[in-house]
Design brief:
CATH architecture of the largest domain: Beta Complex
Number of strands: 10
Strand content: 15-25%
Structural class: alpha+beta
Bound molecules: zinc ion
Number of helices: 4
Radius of gyration: 31 Å
Number of domains: 2
CATH class of the largest domain: Mainly Beta
Largest sheet: 3 strands, antiparallel
CATH topology of the largest domain: Beta-clip-like
Distance between the termini: 110 Å
């Protein structure tokens, strides 16, 4: 086993969201990294069309790869909204390969974009945990914190002014200039 896997530029490892696939050596942009592999399902066969899992990869309107099989190591690749790889879909060959779209360094997690349908069905409800979305969320959180701090300072300043202002008004209106709203004439 080790002799076979040592040639491969990846390994399964711990990622933030469970398991993931990581580069064990540099992978050049454009390199075919791994095949997304599994039985081909035909949607015209009801019992095949009924199969439902998170690893289905639709090739076209008819054919789908069921990637849930153990042998399909590519199923460990996590989604990213800003990935370093992509799925190269070959409907006519009924094959999918995962290919680097950036130079990937040893140790980097390999990601590809799972696409809009998967995102809507599985990621949007729980919030995407890819590095890009995490970064975006942290930035928004920091901005919200800064905004709250600003609002607080503004409110405190306003409160200070409000507590200082009425005294001044009373002094001016009733006592400072000696008049009491003109009623003193009577
Ligand atoms: Zn994301």
């Amino acid at each position: 086993m080790p002799a076979i896997s040592s040639n491969k530029p990846y390994r399964v490892g711990r990622s933030k969201t469970g398991l993931g696939l990581f580069a064990t050596k540099p992978i050049k942009k454009g390199t075919r990294i791994i095949r997304y592999f599994g039985p081909i399902l035909d949607c015209r066969i009801p019992e095949q069309d009924d199969i439902e899992n998170k690893y289905l990869f639709e090739l076209n309107g008819r054919w789908t790869i069921d990637g849930s099989v153990r042998k399909n190591v590519a199923r460990y690749i996590n989604h990213s909204c800003r990935p370093n790889a992509e799925s190269d879909v070959r409907p006519r060959e009924r094959k999918v390969f995962i290919r680097a779209i950036k130079n990937i360094e040893a140790g980097d997690e390999i990601n590809y974009d799972y696409g809009a349908d998967y995102f809507k069905a599985y990621l949007k409800p729980i919030g995407c945990k890819c590095a890009s979305c995490e970064k975006k969320r942290n930035k928004l959180r920091a901005e919200a914190r800064a905004e709250r701090a600003k609002v607080k300072v503004r409110a405190e300043r306003k409160a200070q002014k409000a507590s200082a202002a009425p005294k001044k008004k009373k002094l001016n209106g009733k006592y400072a200039n000696g008049k009491t709203n003109g009623r003193a004439r009577a």
